[in-house]
Each structure stands twice: as C-alpha cells, then as structure tokens.
Fold:
Amino acid sequence: MRVVLLGPPGAGKGTQADRIAARFQLVHVATGDILRANVADGTPLGEVAQAYLDSGELVPDEVVVAMMLERLTQPDCGHGFLLDGFPRSVAQARELDRHLAELGTPLDAAINLEVAEEELLHRLARRGRADDNAQTIRNRLQVFVSSTRPLHDYYDEQGLLFSVAAAGTIDEVTERIRHAPSDVPKRAPPARSQPATSGSEGADVP
Structure:
C-alpha cells in the first residue's frame, strides 16, 4: 500500500502516521526526517540543502522532490510507504505520480485528516509561540487551506482522496484512518490509468 497523509497543522499527522505505518507495515517517510538525514549524512543533495539553510533560505522545491523520490527508490519502500509532509503542491504530486508510474507502483490513497477550525485553534494555541494569538493562528491556517486545496482537488479527481474526521481520541482517529484505505481496491481505477478516447514552494528543516 502506498499512501499520502494530508492535513493541517494540529491535525495529528505525525502521531497517526507512526501508528498507521506500524499497523500496515509501511515505511513512514516524513519530509523533515529526510531533509535532516541528507544534511547530517552530507549527501550531495544534503550539501545543496545546507547551503540554502545556512543563508536563511527555504530549500528549493526541486531539491526536496529529489530527496523524497530518491528515498522511495530504496528497497524497504518496495513493500509500501506512507508519505507525511509530501507532496505539498500539485507540482510535487505530479512529479510523484510520474516517478511511481515509472516504477509501476501507483499511489493507492491520499488520506486527509479533517479538524474543525476552532478545534485546530485550540490545539495550536496550546503548543504555539508566546507571541501567537488566535488571529495569527487563524491566518496561518487560512494560508494553509488555500495553498493545499488544489492538492486535495487533484487527488479527489483521481478518486484517491479519503477524508477522515480527526476529532476525538488518538485511538478513535486511528481506527477511522485504518478503515479508510480498506475501500481502495473497491474503487474504480483513476482516470489517468484509462486509455484515451475520442469524444513552487520550498521547505525548511523543522
């Protein structure tokens, strides 16, 4: 199984990614972890990323994509993976699709964790910076929603998007996510796999 986990800050992606990866024996591939590993190991891509970080700039989109796709070619990902923090844009999603198509291992599902705005405000206020206020956090969430809506539409059009309510206990959310991918084999193949008929952003190391 090959899954993308989506959701806003405060939705609990990290916690749920670890749980779902363990449940389905998937490799948890997180953007921040891959960036840090490349930088720490001094890989060619890591050195490029470090140069941008040293100058206070975001790591370019193409560098992040290259790191992530390189990770997905490693043998342990051949049995399935869960992507956390990637893709973050339609451009990245298309590049991911192209790469997986070359490997003959297309994506199975994009699971979106949904949380009401007021609940997200409450969660983020508890872990936010001292100078954060409700409006600052709200603005941050609105920017996230507007920037990721095209990505949700992209996966929805392919029949891959599953939305899961992320309110409740950790165990309750895990159970909802666990059952979402079970419907994947029952869904019709995405339109991109059918024969034709006639009729950027960057990243830093958190």
Q: What stands out?
A: The radius of gyration is 18 Å. Confidence is low (pLDDT under 50) at residues 184-201. Helices lie at 13-24, 31-41, 44-54, 61-72, 90-103, 117-127, 134-157, 170-179. The longest strand covers residues 109-114.
